[in-house]
Amino acid sequence: MVRGAVISALRSGEGKTLVTLGLLRLFSRKGVLVQPFKVGPDYIDPKWHKLASGRASYNLELFSMGEKRLKALFYSVATSSEIALVEGVMGLFDGKFSTFRVAKILKLPVIIVLDTFGLAETIAPLVKGAAERLKRASLPFVLFLNRVSSDKHLLRLERALRRYPLLGYLKREEALKLSSRHLGLYLPEDIERAKELLDYLSEILDQTVNLEIFEEFKLSMPPKGQRPFFLPEIPYAKIALAMDRAFNFYYQHLLDELSQKASILTFSPLEDESLPSEAEAIYIGGGYPELYAERLSANQKMLRALKEWAEAGLPLYAECGGLIYLSRALHWQGKSYNMANIFPFLIERGNLTLGYRKVIPQDRLPLFETKGPFFAHEFHYTKVTEPSSKIKTIFLVKSLEGEKFNEGFLYKKSLSTYLHLLSFAET
């Protein structure tokens, strides 16, 4: 019997990622097969999930998957585990595709993480509204108290919340703080002793969490069915995938399916001087090329190899960080770095652009070789400058707010876009 829960909060910054990682690590160290998930689009939290649990984390993306495919993905992955832990996004009820909606669809119990710093009895009415709404939805829930100041503070909180079940607590401690930068948390590989931090966190939770509560969180799981499809058929047998410290933003459900449709040949734009010789198509995902701009620019052999590939009219698909890499140059923090110059525009720092996108291609997509509609999202702090009117765009894009614009830059069979692919529409 698989047990599980979704870990949420009343707002961002309450500590749900910290609690998720601690529980994943705790169960993993106890020899429990624990499967992580993340609500919504996110590349960074799932990397931490994998480090904590030893298992790849999957995004439950309601906007692009819809209820049917979201349920099919969750059940097909979770059935191979003993406990499924789903980290929520933002506040529990926030947004059209909220953590609450996902919890309702999957009938998941809810863990509400509460940042208790500076609060005591006032916390009770803050919880009451969420508790009543969860009760109306027939979703069981427990509370987790984060950043508790002292034993006396804990006692006051427990008394104020005595009508609600309590999973556990964490005391306030600077060592348990996860650092962030412009796209979110630091990647685990960028934090010294990340594993030691997770081990320390799990040791604390082992003393402060009532794990027996999870025995009550049994999930009603249908028989394991077929994985849903998110990609069209791909007419290439071998695909070169950029994978290193600069480029590593890929969704696991897409990687799984891509590897079923073709052989994946990984390469490093940072370290390698040539492309995989057997590659028939190239996929460059997002990441942090701006943090490694000097090294990427210095690897002239790789830049020339990509330029020659593009000029030969071979399929190349690049998104967000990949778009930066294929540009003429990146201007970042007062310096300019030459890139592959496949697309003759410049990239510089801009305002935050984010949101869901529905995309209708007006021409066949390189790599996927289809004009089928797909779902995507944007999340970036850079912008294209000096775009040439001669650069062809093949995407008609619509945001959830109704804004329409053209995107998807095409040169021969090379495409670059700021849009991160989530899923193709069901056919």
TrEMBL record:
Keyword ATP-binding belongs to the record: yes
Pfam families: CbiA (PF01656), GATase_3 (PF07685)
Domain of life assignment: Bacteria
GO terms assigned for molecular function: ATP binding; cobyrinic acid a,c-diamide synthase activity
Keywords in alphabetical order: ATP-binding, Cobalamin biosynthesis, Glutamine amidotransferase, Ligase, Magnesium, Nucleotide-binding
Residue ranges constituting the CobQ/CobB/MinD/ParA nucleotide binding domain according to the UniProt record: 7-182
Pathways per UniProt: Cofactor biosynthesis; adenosylcobalamin biosynthesis
Entry keyword Ligase: yes
Gene3D superfamilies per UniProt: 3.40.50.880, P-loop containing nucleotide triphosphate hydrolases
Domain CobB/CobQ-like glutamine amidotransferase: 238-424
SUPFAM superfamilies xrefs: Class I glutamine amidotransferase-like, P-loop containing nucleoside triphosphate hydrolases
Transmembrane segments: none
PANTHER family: COBYRINATE A,C-DIAMIDE SYNTHASE
Annotated protein name in UniProt: Cobyrinate a,c-diamide synthase
